[in-house]
Fold this sequence. Notes:
The protein is α+β, with helices and mostly antiparallel strands and 320 residues long. Helix content is 34%, strand content 18%. The chain has helices at 14-23, 29-45, 50-65, 76-85, 92-98, 103-110, 126-131, 160-167, 171-175, 255-266, 304-313; strands spanning 121-123, 138-142, 150-152, 187-190, 200-207, 210-218, 225-230, 235-236, 239-240, 271-278, 283-289, 299-300. Strands 8-7-6-5-10-11 form a six-stranded antiparallel beta sheet, sandwiched between helices. A four-stranded antiparallel beta sheet has the order 1-4-2-3. A two-stranded antiparallel ribbon has the order 9-12. A hairpin with a 4-residue loop joins strand 10 (271-278) and strand 11. The radius of gyration is 19 Å and the shape is globular.
Amino acid sequence: xxxxxxxxxxxxxxxxxxxxxxxxxxxxxxxxxxxxxxxxxxxxxxxxxxxxxxxxxxxxxxxxxxxxxxxxxxxxxxxxxxxxxxxxxxxxxxxxxxxxxxxxxxxxxxxxxxxxxxxxxxxxxxxxxxxxxxxxxxxxxxxxxxxxxxxxxxxxxxxxxxxxxxxxxxxxxxxxxxxxxxxxxxxxxxxxxxxxxxxxxxxxxxxxxxxxxxxxxxxxxxxxxxxxxxxxxxxxxxxxxxxxxxxxxxxxxxxxxxxxxxxxxxxxxxxxxxxxxxxxxxxxxxxxxxxxxxxxxxxxxxxxxxxxxxxxxxxxxxxx
Length: 320
């Protein structure tokens, strides 16, 4: 079971679909799919070096965002594009914390081990996975990928074909996020967070150690919705990739704690997303994401990107 979606296969509600229809200028769905396939094939054929990464990222940015990236403008996706296509994405700390096993060492050093999800096992090959006796209830995910997970709730058979595919996959080849390129394929086994099948997931977008935007994902494995809030827990009238929830999320009792933890864990990075699971009291780090959506997700309405960006980065330096 996977919980990720590619930008050309958005699991979105009416508001997102309406914006996509407007953005594609009424093209038939088969034409939109063909365009997406063309871009995916083209980007896989381009050289696997920093020049090829730049051209690939630029093509995807133009296709998804319908504009040229201008990092001076200090908009959300422009800043992600700048990180993705510069040497910053190759910062050893960004590479290290992209690995779901190693990021726990960083969290332990910064926050203490109490904010890590316990690790039941780390498996280094598909053969080792087949020999391992998985708990009847556990979460299984690759340490070197993003947006995919296997949930074993009641001793169901393990999908070893999916695990084999993980070991054969380098996320860099499709996304050109170079921080993933050197990661060694592994599988990590964890308990369900707070023994909850669908725990609340809070994602903090931080600039220079300051959390300014919060993304709340609900029911990720059932009917995924996503709301956005500022640091004061005021809901923002925007959507991205997944439909917004019909109601506001209750302000978490430990919001101040999570804001403090996000600030401490993000202070070594210019712009980063820090994810926590919370039950209202405890906060456990899910992952650190260095290039949200690969700079290939868009806000709905699109004009909201300017508002969100000002919340994070302050007034734009260049509105052109």
